[in-house]
Amino acid sequence: MTVQTEQTKQTEQQHFERTIGHEQRIEPRDWMPDGYRRTLVRQIAQHAHSEIIGMQPEGTWLASAPSLRRKAILVAKVQDEAGHGIYLYSAAETLGVDRQDLTEQLIDRRQKYSSIFNYPTLSYADVGTIGWLVDGAAICNQVPLCRSSYGPYARAMIRVCKEESFHQRQGFELLMTMMTGTDEQRAMVQESVDRWWWPSLMMFGPPDDASPNSAQSMAWGIKRHSNDELRQRFVDMSVPQAEVLGVTLPDPELAWNEERGHYDFGEPDWDELSRVIRGEGACNDERVARRTQAHEDGEWVRAAAAAYAQKQAHPVVEERTA
Ligand code: FAQ
Question: Is the N or C terminus of the chain more exposed, i.e. has fewer CB atoms within 10 Å?
Answer without folding.
Answer: C
